[in-house]
Amino acid sequence: MDTEAHIVFDHVSFGYHKTGEQCLSDISFTLRPGESLGIIGATGSGKTTIVNLLMRFYDCDQGAVYIRGKDVRTYDRDALREMFGVVFQNDTIFNDTLRENISFGRNLADEAVRQAAQTANIADFIEGLEQGYQYRADIKGANLSGGQKQRMLVARAVADHPEILVLDDSSSALDYKTDAALRKAIQTGYSGSTLIMIAQRVSSIMNLDHILVLEEGKMIGYGTHQELLERCPVYLDIYQSQMGDIA
Questions:
Q1: pTM over 0.85
Q2: Cα distance between residue 23 and residue 186, in whole Å
């Protein structure tokens, strides 16, 4: 094993025992500290399952997942999850102030909350409100737009400078310009965090260090954007359908 590795998936397979559904088959990759991984594939291809195994919401059936050279199954679950800042697909905004929605009970300093909001490209919106960070969100963020809610969730995820940052389809409601600005801010301000980004858009992940392409739980492509354009027909098809023909 790479002694400098931060995250390692070593021939990992997983299936739901109650249904017999096989979700992942023989997944292997390595990330060093501060590297970034994009994961792309159709709905149900196993993208989110990778995060669930990494954070031990489930344990793999075969192979092993390592963080800092230790099998994740040897960590205390709470200690393991404290390493992460995460935006899940089903995360929600609470009926509380915008500040508390970002701080999330962690007693963060005002400057840390503001820096997180700036990174998530939501600070201008918040500071333009009469009540600013004390503005109260409705239940599930009903008084915020879809894009504002996603940017608030990103601010929450980055606010405590996590060791591992996971963004699961966290920019689907953003326009391409805002999405690009958000990604640049994260990679600039949180370059020390190892980043895993799950996305439907090629544009969201094409500049990351590594890209994993999943299809029905199988690893059908792994490499840089350029390598996958040349070697992975499925990735090329996704790229052409979203971005147009290659010049």
A1: yes
A2: 30
Q: What is the pLDDT of residues 139-165, one digit of tens each?
A: 999 999 999 999 999 999 999 999 999
3-state percent breakdown (helix, strand, coil) of the chain, nearest 5? 35, 25, 35
Mean pLDDT, residues 160-185: 84
Question: CA 50, CA 58: separation in Å to the nearest integer?
Answer: 10
Name the phi and psi angles at 128, rounded to 5: -85, -10
The pLDDT score that the predictor gives to residue 169 is 80
**Is the CB of residue 223 less than 8 Å from the CB of residue 231?**
yes
- DSSP type of residue 136: B
The H or E element that residue 98 is part of is: helix 98-103
208 φ/ψ angles, rounded to the nearest 5 degrees: -80, 165
Are the C-beta atoms of residues 243 and 202 closer than 8 Å to each other?
Answer: yes
Report the C-alpha gap between 93 and 99 in whole angstroms: 11
Rounded to 5°, the CA angle 69-104-149 comes to 100
Q: Which amino acid appears at position 202 of this protein?
A: V
Encode 123-155: b = buried (16+ Cβ within 10 Å), e = exposed. bebbeeeeeebebebeeebeebeebbbbbbbbb
Please give the C-alpha separations between residue 13 and each of 62, 216, 247, in angstroms, as whole numbers. 5, 12, 38
Alpha-carbon span 121 to 64, nearest angstrom: 37
What CA dihedral angle connects 195, 214, 65 and 82, to 10 degrees? 40
